Amino acid sequence: MSFSFLIRRLAYGLVLMLGVVVLNFLLIRLAPGDPAVVIAGEMGGATEEMLQSIRAEYGLDQPVLTQLWIYISNVAQGDLGQSYFFNQPVASLIGQRLGPTILLVLVAQLLSILLGVFLGVIAARKPNGPLSAFVSVFSTLGYAVPVFWTGIMLIILFASTFPIFPVEGMASVRLRDAAWYVRGLDVIHHLVLPAFTLAIIYLAQYARLSRASMMEVLGSDYIRTARAKGAGERSVLFRHALRNAALPILTVAGLQFGNLISGSLLVETVYNWPGMGRLAFDSILRRDYPTIMGGAVLCLCHGGGGQYPHRSELSAGRSAAAGPGMSGIRTTGPRRRGAAAAGQEGANPLCAPGGGAFTPGIFQARKRAG
Amino acid sequence: MSALLEIEDLRVTFRTRYGEVTALDSVSLQVNAGETLGIVGESGCGKSITALSVMGLIPSPPGKIAGGSIRLNGEELIGVSPARMRALRGSDVAMIFQEPMTSLNPVFTVGDQIAEAIMLHQKVSPDQAFRDAVALLDRVGIPSPDRRARDYPHQLSGGMRQRVMIAMAVSCRPKVLIADEPTTALDVTVQAQIFDLLNEIQRDFGAAIMLITHDMGAISEMADRVAVMYAGRVIETATADDVLDLPQHPYARGLIDCIPTLGRADHALKEIPGVVPPLHLLGKGCAFADRCAYKFDRCDAEKPLLTDHGRHPVACHGAEEGRI
Questions:
Q1: Are residues A172 and A321 in the same domain?
Q2: Is the residue at A219 inside a domain?
Q3: Is the complex ipTM higher than 0.90?
Q4: Mean pLDDT of all residues in chain B?
Q5: Number of structural domains chain B divides into
Q6: B interface mutation test: which of A126, A213, A224, A229 has the most B CBs within 10 A?
Q7: Is the CB of residue B57 less than 8 Å away from at least one CB of chain A?
């Protein structure tokens, strides 16, 4: 990747960001609902006079283009504005909520890769066995079932039938003053269901992918060599074969990370997990425009904000780094698959280019009072 | 003296869409310590299946050892526990494959791959195993083995990779070394080097070599004894000189006539007409009958057995009745 390539990419990124900000901003004008009414409602009454003063205070009485200009120049200076609802800077609000989301997404990613690859490897050993059939059916189901439905079903199951996992929130209130490790364990306990729910879709994909990839690798000559050396079955599978089969898995893992973040919106909402997704969802309901826009901008910044060819190139680079010997031999395979996966990502409405998860997002510039 | 490796009446079948096909039928071979047995025959005649049976690496399913016995040093290998087979593989009996380009794992350095073979069978530290691997690379004639041991397979040429395979195979001083067409993928000058190396290795390590090839030149250079295979059976077996000079079976004669003679431009190169019949279409007669110039009634009616008719064992009715 040459320097001029990077500059060009960065310029594309800026243009794209500007476009998304402008588009999201203008979309609000098309959506019904008035933040002033929501704010006035929270305050206990909505006389026309009060609405007017609220609009004036928040800058909502300015022409749209003026509001847009103020917002863009603020964002350019790193100021994401002030939340209407929480009455604190959007940036610090996001800062508080980003941690839980990253925790959830990382754990879900880890869970789906570990479990998915393990299932796939085991299934590849006997491609016609019952476990292999199970993996195939489970993958199709896991990918087809909406994540919020899985979440609700798990809540029903674990709230009444087997009440062993908390089904809501991130921490127990009564443990607020407990020692740090007790609180840590409590968070892990709360994490089980959301992380598993989020992992299910991707777990299924990893299982499928690693099964296919392993089956291909297990037929190769060097696997026979490993067996001829006297290597045991476990070493053959996990040492000799998996390392070669890992390339497409790594590529997809890189691409899936963005999908996981958008998937977390639904999971966080279902489990009331105090993360970015929950914040964005609530903000949309509350017409808290600065917060929604802040979320959109953040999502955009993540990994080039849906400039997916860019990200798959990065993944390809990472794959090459993971398998030093591979560069001369199998680059075409993973790259091709990477491109296919990128196309798939483009087709997923939740992660359409431009951080589509937050696209209902709209915002009103806040005029700084006096 | 009993043979180091004895294969007796080995029968291997494969399940295919034509039903069960017999890939090896009553194959009997012996290899003595320090000896090189050449196995020759066309593609698909069962040479590699014989080798894989000894290694216990027949892909199963669809393959299956349906009968017979394989004894290594008197120990029966058929039906032995998988753990015992793993312990023997690589240490007592090792194999060199015909595709050096794809037989090494692309994601490990060659030094690590040799060291792994050592550590699987000997209790040594990883450092010691790696040092042994470097010494082995030096032994098989790889220049600057220190540096090469840290290379990945794609950084080496085909000949070098085959040397690495040989180093890996001899790393635990196997009693039997199976070389399955070790030079097929290499160019001619490298072939000669590899054969020289195998000869040296045999002298140093005292291993018995089972050399699988379809190259009669390689046989004359390497082998002490030869078994000629055709359609899953051994059809002639004798010392290398006997087979090369006085082949009994029409097929063995055909193979030897196929060797071009240097300096004789007028001499038209002979060929064996036809192809090996598909295994599922073998009748009750001799599998070679349809391609044989000496064919007579009996050839279609009954399978010839490998028996000695004066010179050395051959499976041919014509040779038995003195028609050839």
A1: yes
A2: yes
A3: no
A4: 85
A5: 1
A6: A229
A7: yes
